[in-house]
Amino acid sequence: VAYSNPRLLVVYGRIADVELALVSGHCPTSVAPQSERDQWWTTLGDRLSALPAGVVPLLMLDANARFVLQELLEMPGNDNADRLQRVFAEHGLDRTRAYDQYGNQRATWLPPAGTEDSAVCIDYLGWPSTWHDSVDDIGVVNLEDEHAGIDHSPVVASVHVSLVKSAQRRGGVNRAAMRTVEGREVVRGIFASAPCIPWDVHVDDHIRLLNVHFQRSLAAAFPHQQSPWLIAQCFAAWRRGQGDPDTLCQGIKRFDKAAAAHILVMRALSNQARASGRQDEAAFTRRVYAEARSDGPAAIAKQIRTVLKRGRGARAALPVVLHTSAGALREPCEVKEAFARHFAQSEQAVSMPLAQIGKWFVADSGGILPELPAS
Questions:
Q1: Nearest alpha carbon to residue 174 among 140, 219, 234
Q2: How far, in Å, CA of 113 to CA of 27, rounded?
Q3: How many CA atoms lie within 13 A of 24 on its CB side?
Q4: What is the 8-class DSSP label of residue 120?
Q5: In this predicted model, what pLDDT tens digit does every residue of 191-238 receive, in sequence order?
Q6: Closest by CA position to 152, among listed 111, 117, 95, 105
Q7: Cα 57 from Cα 314, distance rounded (Å)
Q8: Residue 59 Cα distances to 94, 205, 283, angstroms
Q9: Is the pTM higher than 0.90?
Q10: Coil, strand or helix: which one is 72?
Q11: Cβ-based neighbours of 40, under 8 Å, separated by 6 or more
Q12: How far is the CA of 104 from the CAs of 85, 111, 170, 181, 282, in angstroms?
């Protein structure tokens, strides 16, 4: 979404490499204040002007614009139609017709209390005028659903165009030159010469104008330089000459065959590695459950709880076993006690109840410590 307000929406899209700007709008009616209508058409024109270069606009408007047919020409019948015609002409756009080939007005909108005879055309599709010969202006289509004949009816156009995206020049700037002392001075000058944009300009346009200034100035001051390595490779190729085409083709084929063989080998090795990993996991799981069964009901219950909590795909919890000079310790409390004694030796610490620690602190430093539990 590039822009949105309650009556106008601009969304960027893409078909292949061609960028589109989908514009959906609802213009105030002819009974709305003139200032409100002028503001809407001005905003629409500003948004079309703000589209980046190469972006194709496609418009879907409830323009509340009525045209009248005079000598087979559609002429503006109200102020909205006049503004629609001017905005489209300014931005090189074409639109669907308000009248069919027989001179009958296309009924895109039916007033709430009106009849079919009072239906008028106020809805339009818009596209670049360069597509004029590639657009089939089908007109109003009846969907024949529960909404048919109520309020608005859809306007349809068929487009058959071949869009070619122009080749873009490689962008970028010479960053190495920007990092030099002289380059930094140039960058400061570019920032200092930024245009002063009025505060009433929309924030999107404000950013766009600044970006245009910075990008153009930086590209002119620090043009991108081709890679020296690529240039050296080009000269080396010219020095060696092109060589025999048949020999080159044979070399390319040999390389393709070698690459294909390598891919097959790597795929087979990957499959073997995954299969071996699954076998190892299955063997490990069987061994863990076998050990749990031998350790008794409590151990097997613990393994079952692990599966219930984490799912069958979870890794089984490894049993904690600490081997000491006194033997193997398996209970968590015994393991913690052994670690405590080990680190106490290096810290020259002495084990004592928690309440005794509090009394020692008060007696030694005169500090005040709240009553502590006995353990």
A1: 219
A2: 21
A3: 7
A4: B
A5: 999 999 888 888 878 888 888 899 889 988 988 776 666 666 667 766
A6: 111
A7: 53
A8: 10, 20, 65
A9: no
A10: coil
A11: 7, 8, 25, 27, 28
A12: 20, 18, 52, 72, 78
Q: How far apart are CA 35 and CA 38, in angstroms?
A: 5
Strand order across the beta sheet in which 123-128 lies: 3-5, 8-15, 18-26, 56-62, 123-128, 93-95
In the numeric block, which tokens belong to residue 178? 């920007």
- Whether residue 106 contacts residue 98, with contact meaning beta carbons closer than 8 Å, is answered with yes
Q: CA triplet 42, 47, 53: central angle to 5 degrees?
A: 140
H or E element in which residue 191 lies: helix 181-192
Q: Which residue, chain included where needed, has tokens 């500090």?
A: 367
Q: pLDDT tens digit string along 323-332?
A: 888 788 878 8
- Phi, psi for residue 287 in degrees, rounded to 5: -65, -40
Token duo for residue 307: 């599966």
Q: Which two tokens stand for residue 358?
A: 């509090």
Which residues are CB-contacts of 18 (< 8 A; sequence separation ≥ 6)?
56, 163, 165
The vertex-253 CA angle with 251 and 254, nearest 5°, equals 65
The values of phi and psi at residue 111, to 5°, are -55, 150
Which string of DSSP letters, residue by residue, matches 203-222? HHHHHHHHHHHHHHHHHHHS
- What CA–CA distance (Å, rounded) separates 85 from 93? 9
Structure tokens given for 318? 């490894």
* 73 pLDDT higher than 70: yes
Query: Can you give the pLDDT at residue 248?
Result: 64
**Average pLDDT over every residue of 25-36:** 92
Partners of 22 in the β-ladder? 11, 58
Q: Record the tokens describing residue 297, joined without a space.
A: 């009901």
Question: Cβ(10)–Cβ(4) under 8 Å?
Answer: yes
